[in-house]
Amino acid sequence: MRVELARLLLAQPDLLLLDEPTNHLDLASLDWLEGFLGDYPGAWLVVSHDRYFLNRMVTSVAELGPSGVLLFPGNYDDYLEARDELEARLAAEQVAIARRVSELQSFIDRFGAKATKARQAQSRAKQLARLERAASSALESGPPPRRARRLKLELPAPPRSGET
User: What is d(CA 38, CA 58) in angstroms, rounded to the nearest whole number?
Assistant: First the structure.
């Protein structure tokens, strides 16, 4: 398998698509692969669960989610940090929008029927409608949900197969 990988890499295509390239490699082969990819003149895209490899080799991380692809510059650790910052910022924005919606609705409820404040209440109602439309479109086109649900799978113990 290592020889086949080396043969494919040495053909030097313009784009390498690598799926778990570090699987079944010993340290010497892994060092060679890292050196090769570091000097590779073309582009390469890697899918890997090997976080150490990703931290050493990648310059950006693409996250594929329900709303599309988000690109984060840096290695895997940088991606985790940027993703946490993005989630915190989005949560703060949601809280601010909810607070503003509450304030506008409260004003409309209090002063909507008063003749002296009717014009202001109508103006606030328009602001509220625009804010709700903007918030709903931001949710639809924004980044993927915070965290995907984890699968909980319980398999029963298999029956005893015999003596051998």
Answer: 9
